[in-house]
Design brief:
heterodimer, B: alpha+beta, Dipeptide-binding Protein, domain 1, Dipeptide-binding Protein, domain 3, six-stranded mixed β-sheet, 20 strands, about 35% helix, disordered N terminus, disordered C terminus, ABC transporter substrate-binding protein (chain B), SBP_5_dom (chain B)
């Protein structure tokens, strides 16, 4: 119960901040938009005042804030200024599949592969000395930088993969094999850039945990009993998994930042990319909508992990139920 | 666990290997009937509403909705399009006769009633692009099916010239049923009268398909491309690599390195030699005339002497543009007709740092503390900032050069690169010292519009935004009067005289310093389409930006021809698949490396600044 209250409070404050931040940016979104359209002088002035009114930007802030909550509770995120007159909810809906296609495989696969490689490194000194520098290199690379490096070598130098967009300009989205191939072709580099950077972090975490667990008392006890190495590792692996699950939850929050820069580098039309455009054009409603999505993602991810934890680790359940 | 993992990895690897082989051959637009165009689309295409031209996708006006006239800047001529003719039948009445047999894409006839409706919808809805006409238009009268009369309360002859080639005529039978016409996105099967229909859109492009039932086929012939794919490209360097690979047929980007790639890849530009491009507008250095000492015309004149536009054109724009002369009117017929060359001789300036220093000395701005920079006459230090938006690389270079040149005569100027929105805010509020801008100095059917932007009379005080030009907030009652007179005067000779007086004021008072004539960027690939307009074949002004389709883009579509023979069989699969390269044997053939070799370093630089280049300046 306490947990749920915390979630609600977090949501309230996060959304309030989300509302406030774009409004304290300098500048005026409508005028920025109209500036792109060179037309007769005094037409711009006329349109500007019209649209300030129709977006409700001339009202006092508290009134804008109230109407924002009211609309939000009705599921209405407003109309984007930059993509006028498309509703923000629709923009997000059309961008979301690209995020899912990119993020879910990269998080899940990097977690699986990272843990596996980390465990390998943890139990073998030889593999360890070879893999660790690679892991450190990967995890220390900023997503943005790593994406550019990949784009340069595989996209520009070798010309194996395209470096922008989600599919070719000349092909129609369909369920045909050709389209799927084209899509995967464009998807590979952004995916790799996220996958590899995350992989390093998982592997290091796993490797350290395995070493710690293998040195732990219960492992020594098992060893003394003459258990096979395999059995010890199995137990160690299980114990080492727990912090990694927590890590996964945290990572789900952090990955948003990674996806943002990756999508910007590859012009990949997900939410990160849309958000970037919103910020550059001071599109209050679009920025709010995107952040709202991110806030919800993080909260939901944490919530799910909270529940999962209870299932995985009996001790947590014990602490919740107060030891009855 | 391990098995699952292995299977997953295998699947990913398998999929990637397959896709990296680069063979894409399914539902694609036929390459030899498709025209790939870029340079005027900077966000997802999702507004085809002609009432909001400031937000509509390029081509909405022109391809889909048509105007009464089109304007040809190469010959300074308004040419009939939907209208057959148009003239002033009295001092306050303009009569238009429509062509016979016009029809909408749904087969219904286009009549005078539609024209009337198009104008009146702007009276009822304040946010329509041309609502403001109703300040001086009193009535639109339908005489018969093909004749419309515009009756003005106060005819603005010059302004009207702009609207007759910019107001898109919309079908009454559709728009009268739309409740909130201004926020209507008009994306589902929009009906216009134009040569193309909307086919499909997604995050990266808008696709148009030819309207084979277009009324104009009998008059103008049939446009050659069956499909037009208008693509979003965020970086000029990506545009370059697409162009040399033949993935982009018609490019309206500023492309660095055009002189180098032109010979290797047979890229078509307007001129074969420098400056390569036609002029599109004037980039001015605006000086804040509300600030000491920039409020002094003599001081501004000194700055004008100290700046060398030739060096700026050469270094910042690789000589792809022309340096501006002191009046700043772009070298196009509409402006040349009114240009007062004699006045320019008399009052103009040339790059002459000695002369600049002389003037500054005589005004009392001297370097009294010996730091190499001049101070105010009372010894106060003097320092200026000059701004352009971050990421606009050629302009960034421009203000670096300007600050060097001004530094050479002892004026301390620091180049600053705020984000676009901050730049725009400072510019419109008048909170800057010096700034480069060109937005409204474009080619129009009337020079009045150009002057009305540079010298816009109704600016607000510093700190309050004003959106219509004259960023330096230069004030002069004579200018206000002259602009009003030109707009409302019918007599040609009197107008010419007024234009002359305006130019004299500009030369004497230096309200802003013209720097360069920004290019009408045009690069075309001859790989799939030929007969592009050039200096030797000047049939159209080849720009596809918003607002420019009716200034030449439409004519380009009517004139280009497909290069069928060479590409029909193999070209389709490889070129359409973007950067997969033109490989037939291995994924990395020489042909793709050729592109990579030249634009590799360029593209990586491009990628590094992608977030900052998300949108390039217009023109």
């Amino acid at each position: 119960m306490r947990k749920i209250t915390i979630y609600i409070l977090t949501f309230f404050f996060a959304v309030t901040i989300d509302w406030a931040i774009p409004r304290f940016m300098p500048g005026d979104p409508v005028s920025v938009l109209l500036s792109r359209f060179a037309t007769l002088p005094n037409v711009a002035e006329h349109l500007h005042s019209y649209f300030i009114q129709s977006f409700g930007l001339d009202k006092p802030l508290w009134e804008q804030y109230l109407s924002f909550w009211k609309a939000l509770l009705h599921g209405d995120l407003g109309v984007s200024i930059y993509y006028y007159p498309k509703p923000v909810a629709e923009i997000i809906k059309s961008a979301l599949p690209y995020d899912i296609a990119l993020l879910v495989p990269s998080i899940v696969l990097s977690w699986i592969v990272g843990n596996w490689l980390g465990a390998l490194a943890g139990k073998s000194k030889k593999i360890d000395s070879f893999l660790m520098p690679v892991f450190y290199f990967l995890t220390a690379s900023p997503y943005f930088w790593f994406a550019i490096v990949l784009a340069y070598f595989f996209g520009v130098k070798l010309d194996w993969f395209p470096v922008s967009g989600a599919y070719s300009y000349g092909i129609m989205p369909s369920l045909s094999w050709a389209f799927i191939k084209d899509f995967l072709h464009h998807w590979t580099l952004p995916f790799l850039s996220l996958f590899l950077v995350q992989l390093g972090g998982w592997a290091i975490g796993m490797r350290n945990m395995i070493i710690y667990e293998v040195e732990a008392d219960y492992a020594r006890y098992l060893e003394a009993l003459g258990s096979s190495e395999k059995l010890i590792l199995k137990h160690a692996f299980r114990n080492a998994m727990l912090p990694q699950v927590t890590g996964l939850a945290l990572q789900l929050g952090l990955i948003v930042a990674g996806a943002l820069t990756t999508e910007v580098v590859f012009s990949y039309p997900g939410i990160g990319y849309v958000l970037m455009q919103g910020i550059l054009n001071q599109d209050y409603f679009l920025i709010q909508g995107c952040f709202l999505m991110i806030i919800l993602n993080v909260l939901v991810a944490n919530f799910v992990i909270d529940i999962l934890y209870v299932v995985i680790d009996p001790r947590v359940k014990y602490s919740y139920t107060g030891g009855e | 666990m391990k098995k699952l993992l292995g299977a997953l990895i295998a699947l990913v690897v398998f999929a990637n290997v397959l896709s990296s082989a680069g063979y894409v051959s399914a539902k694609e637009l036929p390459r030899d009937e498709t025209l790939y165009v870029g340079g005027g689309l900077w966000s997802q295409p999702n507004n085809f509403n002609p009432l909001t031209p400031w937000a509509a996708v390029t081509g909405t006006i022109g391809l889909l909705y048509e105007t009464l006239f089109i304007y040809d800047p190469l010959n300074d001529k308004l040419e009939p399009w939907l209208a057959e003719s148009g003239q002033w039948i009295s001092d306050n009445t303009y009569e238009i006769k429509l062509r016979p047999n016009l029809k909408w894409q749904d087969g219904k006839p286009l009549t005078a009633e539609d024209v009337k409706f198009t104008f009146e919808i702007a009276k009822e809805n304040g946010g329509v692009g041309w609502s403001q006409i109703w300040g001086w238009l009193s009535q639109v009268k339908v005489v018969d099916d093909r004749t419309v009369q515009f009756i003005f309360s106060k005819p603005h002859y010059e302004e009207w010239k702009y609207w007759i080639y910019n107001v898109p005529i919309i079908p009454e039978h559709i728009w009268k049923n739309i409740k909130d016409p201004i926020s209507y996105p008009n994306t589902d099967n929009p009906v216009g009268s134009g040569m193309y229909k909307l086919y499909k859109t997604d995050q990266m492009r808008a696709i148009w398909v030819r309207n084979d039932d277009w009324w104009g086929i009998k008059v103008f012939g049939k446009p050659a491309p069956k499909y037009i794919v208008y693509v979003i490209v965020y970086s000029n360097n990506v545009a370059l690599s697409m162009l040399v690979k033949g993935d982009l047929d018609w490019s309206n980007f500023f492309i660095p390195g055009v002189p180098d790639v032109k010979s290797t890849y047979k890229i078509v530009t307007w001129y074969d030699k420098k400056p390569y491009h036609l002029s599109a507008n004037t980039a001015f250095l605006f000086l804040n005339t509300q600030k000491e000492p920039l409020n002094n015309p003599e001081f501004r004149r000194a700055l004008a002497y100290a700046i060398d536009p030739k060096e700026i054109a050469a270094r910042a724009e690789q000589n792809q543009v022309l340096p501006a002369d002191p009046i700043g009117l772009p070298p196009l017929p509409v402006f040349e007709k009114i240009k007062a060359k004699d006045l320019e001789e008399k009052y103009g300036w040339k790059y002459d740092p000695e002369k600049a220093m002389q003037i500054l000395d005589s005004l009392g701005f001297k370097d009294t503390n010996g730091d190499g920079y001049r101070e105010f006459p009372d010894g106060k230090p003097m320092k200026f900032e000059i701004i352009v938006p971050y990421g606009w690389t050629d302009w960034m270079e421009m203000i670096r050069i300007i600050s060097d040149q001004l530094g050479a005569v002892g004026i301390r100027v620091e180049p600053k690169f705020p984000d676009y929105s901050k730049y725009w805010e400072d510019l419109t509020k008048g909170e800057f010292d010096m700034a480069i801008n060109n937005f409204g100095s474009q080619v129009y059917a009337t020079p009045w519009q150009w002057f009305n932007w540079v010298l816009y009379p109704n600016v607000t005080p510093v700190g309050k935004p004003s959106y219509s030009g004259n960023w330096g907030r230069y004030k002069n009652d004579n200018v206000t009067k002259l602009l009003e007179l030109i707009n409302t005067e019918k007599d040609k000779n009197k107008k010419l005289q007024y234009y002359k007086e305006l130019q004299e004021i500009m030369l004497k008072d230096v309200p802003a310093i013209p720097i360069i004539y920004n290019g009408a960027w045009f690069e075309a690939s001859p790989a799939h389409w030929t007969n592009w307009p050039t200096e030797k074949n000047p049939y159209a002004y080849p720009i596809s930006w918003n607002n420019y389709w009716q200034m030449g883009g439409l004519k380009v579509l009517l004139h280009i021809k497909p290069v069928k023979s060479a590409t029909s069989s193999t070209g389709t699969t490889s070129t359409a698949s973007g950067t997969t390269g033109t490989s037939k044997t291995t994924p990395t053939t020489s042909s793709s490396k050729k592109g990579g070799g030249i634009c590799g370093p360029a593209a990586i630089v491009g990628l590094a600044v992608v977030p900052l280049l998300l949108r390039r300046k217009k023109g």
